[in-house]
Amino acid sequence: QVQLVESGGGLVQPGGSLRLSCAASGSIGSIYSMSWYRQAPGKQRELAARITSDGSTVYADSVKGRFIISRDDTDTKITAYLQMNSLKPEETAVYYCKAATFYGSASWGQGTQVTVSS
Q: Average pLDDT of 2-17?
């Protein structure tokens, strides 16, 4: 099993930046990809960015050029980061980390609130 712990959310002004972190522990050798999703009030959860074990990345069109996903792998932990720049009020949401394994299973973090407001 994989356990995920997220951090880094908070309140930021429009145009500002935040960096989210997601630390994965447990059966990290089975992790294929780490992703960040977000869910705004009244909306469906959507993918913001994904990074695979070989470093390939995928971004939602709405965040391309502003968000950067990266990962740091050690023997005991994988940490995925989401650097978010030029944030907009409509990007206020709960941001969730997801770890997907080579076997088709997935684990989710508890979510971290990001509020973009002046």
A: 96
